[in-house]
């Protein structure tokens, strides 16, 4: 579904992404992991149109989408969430969801003045969709709460809900589990799996929680120093010596295991 060919993203002399090539299969939940500074978020930002790459190509199916803006990609069904949720803090959860669909008649003064019934009908459709999303995510108890008052995990659920307000084809999740307690993390994971299995969503997610990655993702792609280091199942990449070295360093990797009676 997404293919990235020999992608480079340089900032001056810094090679944030250095020749990365990946494929994200339609219908998969693909994990993207790696140590800090590996280039994961930069790769996300290039794919999602926030940066134009120094070189390389991004494909959505058979279409070259390299350098298209986030707004253009939104209309093609490619969406991206952020590590820090971007909610409208002074609007309710329901209102945040209703803000997502674009080209609503209520945005036109002409329609507001001359076609109020059209505006009302569309608003009722969007509200019904928002209520469906709220029920799906099991957040009915905060539907009328200001988004700024939500917990970190609830805000991540809201971000996920916003992707459900349009016909998303692929969603890039940037550390969706960061700062989320275990109970809400399980709820998030359940929602992602259901969206994948029941509604055909394709996901690619950056995450540091390997238990969470192992539960949701197959395959898992590992980046280090701007390059793709390994790819496989969660168990395969966790056992890969090159991956262990990238995370822990040569010294820790080669350090002998402590004996039961030994000291640290």
From TrEMBL:
SMART domains given in the database record: AAA (SM00382)
InterPro entries documented for this protein: AAA+_ATPase, ABC_AA/LPS_Transport, ABC_transporter-like_ATP-bd, ABC_transporter-like_CS, BCA_ABC_TP_C, P-loop_NTPase
Keywords: ATP-binding, Nucleotide-binding, Transport
Domain called ABC transporter: residue spans: 2-250
Keyword set includes ATP-binding: yes
GO molecular function terms attached to this record: ATP binding; ATP hydrolysis activity
Gene Ontology CC entries for this record: plasma membrane
Record-stated family: Belongs to the ABC transporter superfamily.
Protein name: ABC transporter ATP-binding protein
Origin organism lineage: Bacteria, Pseudomonadati, Pseudomonadota, Alphaproteobacteria, Hyphomicrobiales
